[in-house]
């Protein structure tokens, strides 16, 4: 039973949306306390005040608190949601721009940008795990920090704690596809397997209609930015070559990297646009925190971020398994990867734990890419854990978007110049 729930990264602009999702479920979740922690004391205090006002106004069954240290936050926890951003947006901007100098897409989860993010996020996640082992050894570690596959793999390799990796990308991808098909309100059923941000969806049905029977000459759904429109366009091209399948919308980075490089050079870093929006978010939080009946209208992220966390908590209370897409140690989910590899798969989560579902397939011509990404995932964990230069170059070279030791060495040289103290391994 999860009564004490901790959110790390509790001062982020995502957190009010997550609190809103928790409050909406009321007493059904069984929560008694939600504790927030963040290294940004100002944002933590503000989001804490807003969360307390929201909980009070809605008569929430739990209290919202803040903690002034990691140990204080974790002590007595039943579940810990790790949603931190080590290095902040200053480091993310380098993640998105540094690789472009070598003609490689700049992105915070795939390619070199994702790797350098892992060098920051893995050590921090392991520190959280070490602290949990001392003050909350029975707690469940829910990882939402990117790159989710590498961070979750590092935690699984460490051992000693129960770990699940969360990502709502499958919901976003399939919702976009449903809108493009003109079926946004129909029930979607599917299976999926792969690695985080490198999955394939199969046996897709919208209502009673299988995807395999639908024409794939679709316009991207309205409201997508240019990057997401490009990802949808390329996803559709990949799906036409693999009838019955639909790819995770991050897989196109590996298929047409030059198009993402061109787009990034033309538009500038995504992080710049996000940073420009943050003052308005926090101004809104400050205003609503002072109201008797706060009305949360703006926060970062979609409802999926909070909804997935809620669904995990709900599933862990039930005896019957709830189908969810999560990142877990393979251990029989698929013969495609090694048993110890953290995979992203659809399974059933319940009070008894995680139950794999029958193994789905992937398009045969993409198996080699998945194996290369699996190898990279393990090497990236080693590099992030040890911080050794040779391990870093070896892992970078294994990334399919890099592909050579010469490029890897050049990237590492640029990183040592550009990140500085933002990359703890260099500080």
Structure report:
The protein has 15 helices and 13 strands. The chain has helices spanning about 15-25, 40-60, 70-75, 90-95, 110-135, 150-160, 170-180, 225-240, 250-255, 255-265, 270-290, 305-315, 365-385, 390-400, 405-420; strands at about 5-10, 35, 65, 80, 140-145, 160-165, 190-195, 200-205, 210, 245, 320-330, 340-350, 355. The strands form two sheets. Strands 7, 8, 9, 10, 11, 12 and 13 form a seven-stranded antiparallel β-sheet that branches. The longest helix has 25 residues, at about 110-135.
Q: List the helices and strands in order.
A: EHEHEHEHHEHEHEEEHEHHHHEEEHHH
Summarize the biggest pleated sheet.
7 strands, antiparallel
Number of strands: 13
- Secondary-structure content class: alpha/beta
Number of helices: 15
Percentage of β-strand residues:
15-25%
Principal-axes shape call = globular
Q: Fraction of residues in helices?
A: 40-55%
Round the mean pLDDT to the nearest integer and report it.
95
Q: Cα distance, first to last residue?
A: 41 Å
Uncertain runs are none
Tell me the radius of gyration.
21 Å
Quick structural overview:
By secondary structure, this protein is of the alpha/beta class. It has helices spanning 15-25, 41-58, 70-74, 88-97, 111-135, 148-158, 169-180, 226-241, 252-255, 257-267, 270-289, 303-315, 367-386, 389-398, 405-418, and strands spanning 4-8, 33-37, 63-66, 79-82, 140-143, 162-165, 188-195, 198-206, 209-210, 246-247, 322-329, 342-350, 353-356. Strands 7, 8, 9, 10, 11, 12 and 13 form a seven-stranded antiparallel β-sheet that branches. A six-stranded parallel β-sheet has the order 3-2-1-4-5-6.
């Amino acid at each position: 039973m999860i009564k004490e729930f901790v959110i790390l990264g509790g001062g982020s602009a995502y957190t009010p949306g997550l609190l809103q999702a928790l409050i909406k479920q009321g007493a059904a979740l069984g929560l008694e306390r939600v504790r927030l922690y963040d290294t940004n004391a100002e944002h933590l205090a503000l989001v804490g005040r807003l969360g307390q006002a929201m909980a009070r106004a809605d008569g929430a069954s739990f209290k919202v608190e803040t903690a002034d240290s990691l140990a204080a936050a974790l002590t007595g926890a039943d579940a810990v949601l790790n949603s931190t951003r080590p290095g902040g947006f200053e480091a993310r901007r380098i993640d998105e721009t540094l690789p472009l100098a070598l003609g490689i897409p700049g992105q915070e989860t795939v390619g070199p940008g994702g790797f350098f993010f892992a060098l920051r996020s893995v050590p921090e996640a392991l520190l959280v795990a070490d602290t949990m082992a001392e003050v909350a050894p029975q707690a469940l570690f829910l990882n939402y920090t990117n790159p989710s596959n590498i961070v979750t793999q590092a935690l699984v390799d460490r051992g000693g704690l129960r770990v699940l990796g969360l990502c709502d990308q499958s919901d976003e991808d399939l919702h976009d596809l449903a809108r493009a098909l003109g079926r946004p309100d129909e029930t979607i059923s599917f299976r999926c397997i792969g690695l985080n941000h490198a999955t394939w969806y199969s046996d897709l049905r919208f209502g009673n209609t299988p995807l395999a029977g639908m024409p794939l000459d679709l316009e991207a759904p309205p409201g997508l930015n240019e990057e997401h429109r490009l990802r949808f366009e390329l996803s559709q091209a990949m799906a036409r070559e693999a009838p019955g399948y639909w790819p995770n919308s991050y897989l196109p980075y590996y298929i047409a990297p030059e198009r993402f490089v061109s787009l990034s050079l033309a538009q500038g870093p995504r992080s710049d646009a996000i940073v420009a929006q943050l003052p308005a978010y926090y101004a809104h939080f400050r205003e609503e925190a002072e109201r008797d009946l706060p009305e949360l209208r703006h926060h970062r992220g979609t409802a999926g971020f909070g909804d997935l966390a809620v669904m995990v908590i709900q599933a862990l209370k039930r005896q019957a398994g709830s189908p969810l897409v999560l990142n877990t140690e393979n251990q029989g989910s698929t013969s495609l990867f090694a048993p110890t590899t953290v995979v992203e798969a659809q399974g059933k989560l319940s009070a008894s734990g995680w139950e794999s579902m029958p193994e789905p397939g992937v398009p045969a011509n993409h198996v080699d890419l998945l194996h290369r990404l699996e190898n990279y995932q393990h090497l990236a964990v080693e590099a992030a854990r040890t911080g050794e230069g040779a391990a870093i170059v070896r892992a970078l070279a294994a990334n399919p978007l890099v592909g050579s030791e010469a490029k890897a060495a050049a990237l590492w040289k640029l990183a040592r110049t550009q990140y500085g103290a933002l990359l703890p391994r260099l500080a």
